[in-house]
Amino acid sequence: MHVMIIGAAGMIGRKLVDKLAAEPDALAYEIAKLTLVDVIEPPVPAALSAISTLALDLSSEGSAERLVSSRPDVIYHLAAIVSGEAEADFDKGYSVNLDGTRALFEAIRREGQRERYAPRLIFASSIAVFGQPFPEKIGDEFFATPLTSYGTQKAICELLLADYSRRGFFDGIGIRLPTICIRPGKPNKAASGFFSNILREPLAGQEAILPVDENVRHWFASPRSAVGFFIHAARMDTGRIGPRRNLTMPGLSALVGEEVEALKRIAGPKAVGLIRREPDPVIGAIVAGWPTNFDARRARELGFTAESSFDEIIRIHIEDELGGKI
Amino acid sequence: MHVMIIGAAGMIGRKLVDKLAAEPDALAYEIAKLTLVDVIEPPVPAALSAISTLALDLSSEGSAERLVSSRPDVIYHLAAIVSGEAEADFDKGYSVNLDGTRALFEAIRREGQRERYAPRLIFASSIAVFGQPFPEKIGDEFFATPLTSYGTQKAICELLLADYSRRGFFDGIGIRLPTICIRPGKPNKAASGFFSNILREPLAGQEAILPVDENVRHWFASPRSAVGFFIHAARMDTGRIGPRRNLTMPGLSALVGEEVEALKRIAGPKAVGLIRREPDPVIGAIVAGWPTNFDARRARELGFTAESSFDEIIRIHIEDELGGKI
């Protein structure tokens, strides 16, 4: 089996590659070839052989055809301009997030016109396809009314994915990820960064800033769950999905206060003392527009799973990022 | 005010032009200029002056820029490849229905970059954005999971319309039309044709074929209502809509049997005797996949109105198409 990961240098991409390196049978079939693609040269874990890497911009002329000509059996499309940049640069966001994705889909269709070909195509979508006002729990049949260009681009790609799958051009699944927590690495400037910062930094003995109230609710899954979603999406029987190919992934709806309580239970009050409260009304306003809870019934029924407590999410971070100890 | 109608030679386009000719103040402001555009030269009612016509394909290079350079204040975009053709010819459907529309939206945005410009943009969408299974009544927050490429293209254009409106590039409204009944003209081969045929033909003393059971339910509005939707969309205060710019129009949910009953009341049992029952399982299966009922609350609250009985729909046909008598 030939597996291609587009966007392999991103946080989820790297973790997915690590998982396939550690468990070569994770996708049920032997991976004979693994191709890693990103705009920068993606890193390669030492354990992997039969691997090739490509530094390439999917939205540039001929790129999609070049990728698809090697006829991968499974294609992960994780590459995107992030939300803030897509909002700041209208042309770039549409070019990469919409036109780049459509070029990939079209290249697959045209490859299939030459000779029968319909790979499994797994697309990283986002809960940014939803826009306020929301019901208390967003169900699987709630409409997509994005309030960002990023969310619009993701929602459009979901529609294309469903139509191309219905036509049999590929076998597509759209994965709407929760906010990933605890994100490894350094604090970043994303408005959502604090959800991870207030756990990751204190666990490493560092201060972190909490810019919102503890009663802010949000929707989370661990990086390990995210990788699990993408593994399951490659293995699962898509005959069970039907034509509604885009799935809100399961997650944990929790208050910031519940994050803090879990941190206290696991790392003690000293860790919690490292959280510095500095209310930021700008971040508060942005976060207030985000979804807080979902009833992700379909994805659960189809076998996707996520954490059920912040204790679990913190323990996963300790195991996967901190070598098991704090 | 300069009004442009793209798709002016179609059934709704022609009726909209006729309405503006008969009531020049229908849009509240004086129409100083009216531009009619279609792939074929659109017909012009004698009553209209200050009118120009253009035969032009919106999806061909430079067409959108050419249209927009005259800076219309109101743009109606009614042009589309119909459902059956968009399903049969994948490339043509996407080229006209998606790329043509996006080219128009982009031309408006770029015109606005040169000099401040944000016209009212009214887009004809469709209930084909919805796909089975449905709730008994489809509410305003039900998700779009089209089961045709046509419906996919309409749903994508709705998303673009909302994003371009949110950004202030234009002031857009998407109008999801019910099935228009009674369609004037000759019987056609559209799967939905019989809904009109079984009334229009008997009213004119002709036989018509009914290929489905009388207990088939569907969602209707008259051509007069459709024109009314488009007039109201140009006049209304869009400040009341908010960012959810695509509206399911009100309509009448009725059984085929109710059509027949209304025909009997208005034209007598002899007219009903002209309906020949010839069950066609192919048409029956297609129709079974269509939405049957909506709760179009938002559009009603925003002032859009439609018929509440088939008696009304038939009387409108008699007034508007048959000179008031049968």
What does this structure look like?
2 copies of one chain form a homodimer. By secondary structure, chain A is of the alpha/beta class. Chain A has 12 helices and 12 strands. The first copy, chain A, has helices at residues 11-22, 63-68, 83-88, 90-114, 149-166, 193-203, 223-235, 256-267, 269-273, 281-288, 297-301, 310-321; strands spanning 2-6, 33-38, 51-55, 74-77, 120-126, 171-177, 179-180, 208-210, 217-221, 246-248, 252-255, 275-277. In chain A, helix 5 (149-166) links the parallel strand 5 and strand 6 (171-177). In chain A, helix 1 (11-22) packs across helix 7 (223-235) and helix 4 packs parallel to helix 5 (149-166). The longest helix of chain A has 25 residues, at 90-114. The model of chain A has no long low-confidence stretch (mean pLDDT 95). The A-B interface holds A 90, 131, 135, 141-147, 149, 152, 155-156, 159-160, 162-163, 166-167, 243-244 and B 90, 131, 135, 141-147, 149, 152, 155-156, 159-160, 162-163, 166-167, 243-244.
**Which architecture of the largest domain in chain A does the CATH hierarchy give at level 2?**
3-Layer(aba) Sandwich
- List how many beta strands of chain A DSSP finds: 12
Per the CATH scheme, the topology name of the largest domain in chain A is: Rossmann fold
Major sheet characteristics of chain A: 7 strands, parallel
How would you write the strand order of the largest sheet of chain A? Answer: 3-2-1-4-5-6-10
Q: How would you name the oligomeric state of the polypeptide chains in this document?
A: homodimer
Can you write the helix and strand succession of chain A as a string? Answer: EHEEHEHHEHEEHEEHEEHHEHHH
Structural domain tally of chain A? 2
> Strand-residue fraction of chain A?
15-25%
Structural class of chain A: alpha/beta
C-alpha termini separation of chain A: 39 Å
Name of the CATH superfamily of the largest domain in chain A: NAD(P)-binding Rossmann-like Domain
Whole-number mean pLDDT of chain A = 95
Rg calc of chain A: 20 Å
Total helical segments of chain A: 12
CATH class of the largest domain in chain A: Alpha Beta
Which term fits the overall shape of chain A? globular
